[in-house]
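Fold it.
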Amino acid sequence: MKVQEMRQKRAGLIAQARTLVDKVDAESRDFTDEERTQYVALMGEDNQGGEIAQLAKVIQDREDLEKLEAELSQPTNEPVKPDGNTTPKLMKRSAFDELDQLHRAAFVKAGGTVED
């Protein structure tokens, strides 16, 4: 089930809980045993652990995962740091300027050239 579908399902469950509360309020009474059972199934004891809270947790987990996955697809701004075997022979000025002094020296010493 997709997050949007889960949100819609959660909204429906919340509406069911509201309907139960509105009914007993309109009749100025407390829940019947059956209504209490339905309400607790939706909301949980002390509003924790019910179907609504469980669904909210699943939604949050999925959204957290989607956020992490989106972060993975973002480009990093880490400069290319040449090392002994994979030193590029040509580097753009902007990338070269991002290197620290030690890595700049290693790049030049290895015969690399900087293009503007």
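The longest helix spans residues 3-26.
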